[in-house]
Specification:
about 90% helix; Membrane protein; transport; single chain
Length: about 350
Amino acid sequence: MFVAFISILIYKAIDSPSVFISSINDLFKFLSPFLLAVLMCLLLNPVIMFLEKKFKMPRILNIFISYFFIFLFFCFCINLIMPSLIDTLNTLITEIPSYTLKIDELLNKYISNNHSFDSILPHIQAHLDSALKHVVKMLNTISSDFLIYIFSITSIVFNIIMGIILSIYILCDKENILKNLKNLLYSTFSKKRATAIIEFFDIINKIFYHYIIGSLIVSLVVGIITFIGFRFFINIKGSLFLSFIVFITNMIPYFGPFIGALLPILMTLSYSPIKALWVAIFLLVLQQVDGNLIAPKIMGEFVGLHPIWIICAVLVGGALFGLIGVFLSVPVAAVIKTYLDKYIEKNINIPKSE
């Protein structure tokens, strides 16, 4: 029956890949509170176990202490981000008009001295009018879809709250939950099959936990190197805040490094185009070092994969499933490699040398 189910899934994936991938995305959206709860349990469980063993306090108290420190961390981050963000926005608001005037004066001076632009000016004006119409249309669309955005944000907040509540219940009663799940497996499948399923999920638990910790360490290393470069070499304003942005966005697969690079470049551009260029070069080099050296090395040690496995997994996962595929590709590849190694070890037949 299990083989038949897998065969049907493979047939659907080959027959209509777009529908199959869309169905997976919808399933992930539906299960997002549960997945968030499992993620929080993976991260908090070692801390809670340490507090229980060290201070002999009730588990529910340890859980609330852990969440309290997470809340304090987020408050610290907001306190760190907001002043720098407000200063940067004020700088942008005051500096952009002067830059616009300088560019306008430069263009007018150059065009007035070069009559060959006279025939091009009407086309430029037409393109500018078209661009302005597109901007107005986009703003109208954003304003008309404002309610949709509000509902989307509300849905995200609801999923986070539900995830936290579910994680508290899971962490409080994890022994009974695991016991009941094991009883269900052993009552449904044979002893051998049930043991294999439990072993499978145990391997997934260890691999995903190590992958999350590895991702945090990689982002932390990138954030520290970014701060050193911004503060001591390029010497830009708000280096701590911008390094923190790079640290956070580096944990986002695929698009994260681009988002993390865009914000420091734009903010530095508001007061120093030369420094903005140096920021762009520095981040480009850093992302190459991160993608080809830091991440494969650290993730390889934590997940137990060779850098070639990691690079291939990210390429295949991104090509097949996009952002979700990139994020899940490394732990999935680690699970596949674990079972591949077991299969080889079990079935290997090396002839004895005479």
